[in-house]
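REQUEST FORM: STRUCTURE PREDICTION
Request ID: SP-0412
Submitted by: Lab K.M.
Chain count: 1
Length (residues): 224
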Amino acid sequence: MDQPGRAPALLLVEDDDQLSEMLNGLLSEAGYRVTVARDGHTGLHKGLSHPYDVMVIDRGLPAIEGSDLVARFRAQGVATPILMLTARGTVADRIHGLDAGAEDYLVKPFDVDELLARIRALHRRHQETAESMSIGVRQLLVQERRVVGEGFDDVDLSGRECELLRVLASRPNRVFTRDELIARVFDDAETPGAVDTYVHYLRRKLGKECVRTVHGMGYRIGTA
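STATUS: Completed
RESULT:
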């Protein structure tokens, strides 16, 4: 669930400078906050370091090939929907990309309107499937902004509390830095103190172990 009024974050991994520049401008005009990586290693680092709403990854990348990059993301628990771009249009190539973990596959040259429509569809389906997320033995109902669980009282959350918990729950084993959480949830906040304040609110509502502090690094989801 995107925070109201907040542009969805998109990671574009494309080594062709001209195409990358064109897509960056096109996607930015379409309302996405675009981060560009020009090779597989950079794409892997960015994709594991920051949460994104959708990724567009070229198949023929230097350093780490595109389908291998997708497989590495999936092995690390990254569930972000991925659209692969490729000049290889055979059925076997498409199957290979989809088996690696991509949700969709578009062959170059492609129609710009079709690309945008496919990205919108991926993002929309991802939002719909992310309406319920595991918080240990409880569930976060994103659309209802509520945490429920057998043996627990239902807990209502504010919009910011829900978004913070949703981001943390999207990667249960990952530590998010304060800077990452500010960019993702509190992009209008002036200081990192906003993150600490809302972590305190969540712990007060859900228990101290709901969000765990990793000293010197940031926060990750707990097991409450």
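NOTES: The chain has eight helices and eleven strands.
Reviewed by: T.R.
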